[in-house]
Amino acid sequence: MSHLYFSLHLRNQLGLLASLAYPREACGILFGKQSQGHISVHRVKEMIYPDQVEGNFRLELLNQQQIDQRTKKQGLEIIGVWRTLPDQCHIPTDSERHLMSPGYSYLIASITPQGISEIRSWRLLSNRFEEEELVS
């Protein structure tokens, strides 16, 4: 099992973004560093797509090159994506597996009116998701 280092500060930031979107879903990018199995999140960014259909998670990086260039200048890389799910717990589905690329983290936060109730992270390995241990 791999470990994803995700600070309390970033958890609170994600909670704020999720609360502002509630009861809608929100999604975005995880920026950080990966080295020898050590994965650490340094920043979360919300990605907003006006044509996004509720319940149909889709994260398209329209400005992928621009994001990559800015991220590299800051000494970071895209290490995964995050998603909030209002009022439900979630394990990635087969359709979500086809949206993800191997080697990236997929962090899912369950959100209620009171805030984040659960956060879990997954990593796509070959053809299946494996849960990552979240470390503060």
Automatic annotation (TrEMBL):
Keywords: Hydrolase, Metal-binding, Metalloprotease, Protease, Zinc
Molecular-function GO term, any one: zinc ion binding
Superkingdom of this protein's organism: Bacteria
Keyword Ion transport: no
Protein name: JAB1/MPN/MOV34 metalloenzyme domain-containing protein
Domain JAB1/MPN/MOV34 metalloenzyme: start-end pairs: 2-134
PANTHER family in alphabetical order: CYSO-CYSTEINE PEPTIDASE
GO BP terms, alphabetized: proteolysis
